[in-house]
Fold this sequence. Notes:
Blueprint: H1 6-34, H2 40-66, H3 73-88, H4 92-103
Helix pairs in contact: 1-2
Amino acid sequence: MLEASSFGKSLIVSTIAQIAHHHIAPVNDTLFASLNDKNSEVRKDAIHNLAALHKSISEVNKRLTSMLKDSDREVRQMAEWALIRINLASSPTAQNYINHQDNHGIASSNGTSNHN
């Protein structure tokens, strides 16, 4: 990463995450819709691409899990928060809970507002 202050680096990371979030949602929607396509080749391609996405999600889980051993307590707490959020996101009931927290600005266990 380019030489920058801590604030600058944090801003860069936040901006990249926002850009990725806005691009991932339409990709997921398209892949999920493709699972119901009449053409079996389209459905197979969607399955293949979802599997590829799963591989990157597995890497995210692995890296966040390693952050549970960070020397900074707040970093460990944020990694725990993220892992819980990722795992809860796989459940529709839990996803509703997360959305409720986000919409009402409910603080996470580490004392900060939930992040999107």
